[in-house]
Amino acid sequence: MRSLANLQGGEKTTRMDIVGVLPLDVAGALIVLWLVLGLLGLALQGSPRFITNAIFPAGALVSLALAATGLWALGEGAGVVVLPLGLPDLPLHLRLDPLSAFFLILLGGASFGVSLFSAGYFRTMAGNTLGLLCLEYHLFLAGMALVLLADDAYMFMVAWETMALSSYFLVTTDHHVPDIRKAGFLYLLIAHVGAIAILLGFGVMQGGHGIGAYTFDAMRAAHLTPFWSSVAFLLALFGFGAKAGVLPLHVWLPEAHPAAPSPVSALMSGIMLKTAIYGMLRVTFDLLDAQQWWWGVLALALGLLTAVFGVMFAAVQGDMKRLLAYSSIENIGLLLVGIGLTIIFHAYGKEALAALSLTATLYHSLNHAFFKSLLFIGTGSILHATGERNMGRLGGLIHRMPWAAMLMLVGVLSIAGLPPFNGFVSEWLLLQAFLLSPGLPNSYINMLIPVAAAVIALAAALAAYVMVKFYGIIFLGQPREQALEHAHDAGRWERIGLGWLALGCVALGLAPVFVIQQLDRVTQMLVGQGLGNAAGGWLFLTPVDTERASYSPVFFLLAVLGVMLVTILTVHRFYHGRLRRGPAWDCGFPAQTARMQDTAEGFGQPIRRIFEPFFKIENELPTAFDTHPRYHGRSDDRIWLSLYLPIKRITEKLSSWVSLLQHGRIHLYLSYTFVTLVVLLAFM
Amino acid sequence: MENINLTLGILFQLCQSLLVVLLAPLLTGWVNQCRAWLQNRSGPGLLQPFRTLRKLFHKDAVIAYNASPLFRITPYILFGCMWLAAAIIPIIAVDLPFSPAADVIALVGVFALARVFIALAAMDIGTAFGTLGARREMLVSFLAEPALLMVLFTASLISQSTQLPRIVEALAHHQFVLYPSLAFAGLAFVIVLLAENARIPVDNPGTHLELTMIHEAMVLEYSARHLALIEWASSLKLLAYISLGIALFFPHGIAEVGQWGALPLAIAVLLVKLTLAGAGLALLETLLAKMRIFRAPEFLGTAFLLAVLGLLIHFLLGA
């Protein structure tokens, strides 16, 4: 398999070398193409049919081409380009190395499905909104791609801000709704607090070498003292953590994701959060030259907190997109745990283990991009079909929307970490990394790691709970509202988009060996060692050696399917296959209505009860004599109340002090200037 | 030689698969018989589960009007997963050619896959009891599953492998040395076994009392061949868990690599172990009382903490 891949890669290079085209050039051209498509959409806003049926699919093809370019670039060395653009004396630098290439594959692969879905999803939108949205959408994609390619701090920040602003406008597509404006503001605020931290981090990393040291190459060469590199790491962790939704900077996620149109939520959750992971990896392993073990412990602890917090809150949500947003927080937590482990292993010189945990992290990023995008666009189909985001008003959609139900089942099983789907592979790799950890020279870390493994296992098991709730309440059971009888299935474009992402989940689950061979080049670059897969062949995933651990999803699937087939054939061969339909039994209870099923709140109730101290719970219970009994329950985030509201109050107080200076009279302001000048003269 | 060994291995894998599928209802029958004896009843006999299965297979299946394809396929998935789980745990010999395809983490994954499908199928009809059962099953499992994983991790750390045959080999070679970490893990495993197999004190396999049932509430809408497969899968699950317990904590007497001559003895030893384990389970179930549903998380939380403690002890003492 590997030799075949090399052979193909080799052929391609020779052919391309003749014309002198490098992967970076192709990637750059594709990004420009995205921008052109976006502008075209804006120009042609009079013909919405054209935008949905031609521009979005064309954008999807660009995505696919970008993913292919990424795959091509993985085999090549790093390519560097200095653009003749930018400020005077500050040209823009681009670089495509294996790390960028991997994330380009993630971006292209996932956005291909989302863009195809968008072609169907946005068809009901009015022309002028659609034209603007088309521009913002493609600008967002281009911004994310440029973040991955940037090779200097200036270019990085420009791309980062393009990404943040375009996604802000996408989130506030329905800006006439006050709640959505509020959600958009929160998102913008936290994105910028994070951006400031990143900017300061770059400032620290360039090491005071003046204006020429803003390129990433200069940062790589600047050897910082342990103190300053720790400062840079902490700033990066804060800044990228704000984008990724790491506790306690997660508050924007559950607000912004439900507010945005579903394909945008899919892009933000599936891909944009990964750019933050990319940033953390880039800064920690590429730009900073020495890692310290306590960075890893910090990341590990934050990741564990984030993961458990995210999944716990996902379990009690009633809004399907909020539930998925909290689930994204959980997955970001898992990724941060992977990064933390990698830092610890790398700092102690255990490169093979660092390679294993880094592989798990990268693999999980890719998996999350696929299954979370799949589930988010799936909620878009449901939203289109029913106009309802509240799971308590859905139900029984498997009969009305069989395609969406089937394809989303793949996503649900993947995100729940069940074999043989993709979520299981990365979870398996991460747990293997934990199992191989004994023998670190620091006994405190040796104690911490099994506890961390236990917390990971708990989060993974809770994720299954959340996903059973998500799928069961939405698709199974009886429809909870009359209107659901008229729900229609996902359209043609929507099905293709959902199908592509579902296919990705299955393929990533079944071919881990191939994926890991590709990932090897990234781990080689970051921690100096690849995982390799010498012993297992292409069927068996063996991260260390065959005696130690192996897993073969293909055999696993064949075995389960084989056993099922034998059972079905035997049962139908030796017994009759007679089947009757009747009313549901339900212990003989005669009057069953749809209202007797569990609501989303009901299904989450045990979690709320077990983890009671973590929630701020408000319950409104009817008394026995209420003529219109009403039950209302609400679980809030304590962090919002105990951290953000005080900060908000302090900010308001500070600004009220500042406003003491403001009177709106010009002579007062002139006297301020005068006083300042006098003071300055007195001291100079 | 390689080829002969592989052929023998595959033959053996098939034999074990057939053996477990026939042994599983017998084990359930034995546990029920023991329980009857302990409760001063005469009991229906060892073969009662087979009679029940035969009766169920001959009946006409009745399913609800709004049952989806997911509902109909789930019994087969459940049966397939449990059969697979029981077939890959080395209980007679460690030469199992399928074992590299699924290690202990994948084994936990198989159980989880089956559980998610049965919970989804329970929600499919949309009855009050179905969703109640699904919710409770997921509640019990989200604590039991990590506990099981931690138990398996302790064993994996001792044997330096997550492959079941390697774990069993490593543990079988330490003749009756009690690992302190395994002692904690063993205790946690018993609790997980009780919870995951819907036994007292977490659930009662013999009840249809609405307010207490978990597993039975989920399968309430199933009948005939579907129900038969689910019942069979449940007994396979019990067998799989008990064999896992035997493999982890009492592996002595198992036939090792290439020792085909030791097979008859290994089978005899296994039967004795299963008999004792079944009797022990019946005794536990008779002595314990069913607990309220919200006591179950505390009970399973104990298991989780015990398992983590076992793991920590392994890290501290290296044993």
Topology:
The complex is a heterodimer of chains A (684) and B (319).
Chain A: H1 2-19, H2 23-43, H3 48-75, E1 79-87, E2 90-96, H4 98-121, H5 127-149, H6 153-171, H7 178-205, H8 216-221, H9 226-244, H10 253-259, H11 262-287, H12 293-315, H13 320-347, H14 351-386, H15 397-400, H16 402-415, H17 422-435, H18 443-475, H19 492-510, H20 512-527, H21 553-574, E3 579-582, H22 600-610, E4 615-620, E5 632-637, H23 638-658, H24 666-683
Antiparallel strand pairs in A: 1-2, 4-5
Helix pairs in contact in A: 2-3, 2-5, 3-4, 3-5, 4-5, 4-11, 4-14, 4-19, 5-6, 5-11, 6-7, 6-11, 7-9, 7-10, 9-11, 10-11, 10-13, 11-13, 11-14, 12-13, 12-18, 13-14, 13-18, 14-16, 14-17, 14-19, 14-20, 16-18, 16-19, 17-18, 17-19
Chain B: H1 2-38, H2 48-58, E1 61-64, H3 69-88, H4 104-124, H5 128-159, H6 164-173, H7 180-196, H8 215-218, H9 224-249, H10 263-287, H11 296-317
Characterize this entry briefly.
The complex is a heterodimer of chains A (684) and B (319). With 684 residues, chain A is mostly helical. Chain A has 24 helices and five strands.
Structure description:
The complex is a heterodimer of chains A (684) and B (319). Chain A has helices at 2-19, 23-43, 48-75, 98-121, 127-149, 153-171, 178-205, 216-221, 226-244, 253-259, 262-287, 293-315, 320-347, 351-386, 397-400, 402-415, 422-435, 443-475, 492-510, 512-527, 553-574, 600-610, 638-658, 666-683, and strands at 79-87, 90-96, 579-582, 615-620, 632-637. Chain A is mostly helical. Chain A has a two-stranded antiparallel sheet with strand order 1-2. A two-stranded antiparallel ribbon of chain A has the order 4-5. The radius of gyration of chain A is 26 Å and the shape is globular. Chain B has 319 residues and is mainly α. Chain B is built from 11 helices and 1 strand; from the N terminus they run ααβααααααααα. In chain B, helix 2 (48-58) packs antiparallel against helix 9 and helix 5 packs across helix 6 (164-173). The radius of gyration of chain B is 19 Å and the shape is globular. The model of chain B has no long low-confidence stretch (mean pLDDT 86). At the A-B interface, helix 17, helix 18, helix 21, strand 3 and helix 22 of A face strand 1, helix 3, helix 4, helix 5 and helix 11 of B.
